[in-house]
């Protein structure tokens, strides 16, 4: 087999590999949670095979995307296509706000931190939810914490967390989170 197609030309093998990788971060994920509308193929274009993704819209229009690259690029593309959908299917069970740890008036280019929450989810797993904004606009981000982090000690967990969410204007670091009221117990340490 070629380097680009190490498992042959059956796209279902690559879908299974991508889904296995997705489950490393989202162990509760099931294929039934994947976003409808996406399908994948390996097609010959000229003399070369390509990974191809299709998305069928509600009006039955179909977009076709050639995924340039190798097996790893296909896996990343697949995960990107479905990641937010899988996250959305795992509803929030509990929240713990640590916004009080952010110095008052923290502002970057007119945006203020509005929310910094650690969340546990109904189907399992933890995430951090961050939201910032100004008087008329805003944005948010949800970052799921890899399950492997919870097998570490508290200090090691915080070190890995800093790699995942580097401390900065809106992200808290190890020193701020180490003694955050209730956080250690909330995360199961």
Q: Tell me what portion of residues adopts beta-strand conformation.
A: 25-35%
In round numbers, the mean pLDDT is 91
Instruction: Count up the helices.
Output: 5
Summarize the helix and strand pattern as letters. HEEEHEEEEEHHH
Considering DSSP H and I runs of 4 or more, what fraction of the residues is helical?
A: 25-40%
Distance between the termini: 46 Å
Q: Uncertain segments of ≥5 residues (pLDDT<50)?
A: none
Instruction: Briefly note the structural class of the backbone.
Output: alpha+beta
For the secondary structure, the number of strands is 8
What Rg, in angstroms, do the CA atoms define?
20 Å
The major sheet is characterized as:
5 strands, antiparallel
- Tell me, what's the shape? elongated
Structure overview:
The structure is a single chain. The protein is α+β, with helices and mostly antiparallel strands and 189 residues long. It contains 5 helices and 8 strands. The strands form 2 sheets. Strands 4, 5, 6, 7 and 8 form a 5-stranded antiparallel sheet that branches. The protein has a 3-stranded antiparallel sheet with strand order 1-2-3, with helices on one face. Strand 5 (107-108) and strand 6 (111-121) form a beta hairpin. Helix 1 (11-25) crosses helix 2 (71-89). It is elongated and about 60 Å long. The mean pLDDT is 91.
Brief characterization of the structure:
The chain has helices spanning 11-25, 71-89, 154-164, 174-177, 183-186, and strands at 38-45, 48-56, 62-67, 92-97, 107-108, 111-121, 126-133, 138-145.
